[in-house]
Predict the 3D structure of the following.
Amino acid sequence: MEILKTIMDTFGASILVPVVIFVICLFMRIPLKKAVNSAILAAVGLVGFNMITNYFTPVISPVVNKMVKIAHLNLPVLDIGWQATAIIAYSTNIGMVFIGLLLVWQIILFATKVTNVFMPSDLWNNYSLILWGSELYLITKNLWLASFLMLFGNMVCLLYSEVIAKRWSTYYGYPQCTLSAPHQVGNVPFALALNWILSKLGVDRIQISPEKIQKNLGFLGDPMIIGFIVGCLLGIIGNITMLGSLKAWGQILTTGVTTAAVMAIFPKVGSIFAQSFSSITAASQKSMKKGGREWYVAVNDALGYGETATLTTGILMIPIALILAFVLPGNIIVPVMCLTGFAYDSEINIALADGNIFKALIMDSCIFIGQLYIGSWFAPMFTRIARQVGVQMPKNSLMVIGFVAANILMGLMTMAFLTQNPIIIGFVVVLYVVQFVYYKKNKQKVTDVIERYSDYSHVKNRQKSVPVQE
């Protein structure tokens, strides 16, 4: 396990993910030239993503810190981002045991057809499962219970990954691909419920898409311009008491230009990364045409980040998230590092909303509120683990949290396991089994319902048939 830890620490996602893609290509008898090309494209894409986010975060963080000072807020928990969370997960003593266990478990689940999602292709994102298992172990010292939480949580996430597979792959245009990252698919049950409720409330009648924005606003509706405007607004709010200084306007314009750059560059990097999966998806489709099993490749959530509606929703969520964090009673978290990752969190909601930015923003906001409270509750435990693995506490912060450790579903499940009460844990397991059996027996029905609530052609037709009042 020490060797595995050394490999994970040394190479990271930008090397490990391409290697896994290369191995899968060879296993699927994809020509060597295409296999190598897929691996290199994945590596280039992941490096590009990291370069953009690593440049964006230091620009946004000082602005947010200024907002907190101006508002005189007492928020003792600092959000340190997914990168630090992954390092923490892989640095715990039990973490490396869990990564090997999870890999074997996922292969068994796929081979026995418990799931039709091949999750090892997104090996890196196992860190969120490892984190929850490590937290439970360090608190309870119960290795069996922690292992069960992690393996059981993996099964739950794979179920939801399969549930949204068709919708996600249809919207983003990646055949036979789906998300499997636990910190993303853990939001699926809440996203499905919100999508249904908002549809019943008539929110579908308000359709805001990138095309509509650009049509109505002209050049102001261009995603790059939207990024510049939102970035400048954040900069102005953060420097509201210093607008008379040249330094303040330097930061304002820098924030605006950087945000615009993210909106312009990320889609291009995303298209490079997406090409790495084209050979695998083509091979899987050929297999199904020959009468083979229908299955989905688990892909990194970076694949959908750069889609215009998704990226626009993620950028617009930044000011909304800050307002929510500042005004919600009981919240103790300052969201900083998560701000650049909202487009990742928006993918499932955008897919369910079929590109409707207005509806997706409502769904994102509701889920973010839940994450703030889950994160506030788990912050002391997360901080304890961070200190144990040697993470230095940021200045003026009593505690830290990564929003990966604020996932609502995994958080609630971990709370149930923390009780160590067999009845409560048993209830959670039974709830999963009921959902699993129902889905397997009614797979097409469930898929059709999701597609129906993601198809707004009936709304458009109804709007066209309504006579315009003079």
User: Anything to note?
Assistant: The radius of gyration is 22 Å. Residues 458-470 have pLDDT under 50 and may be disordered. Residues 32-71 form the longest helix (40 residues).
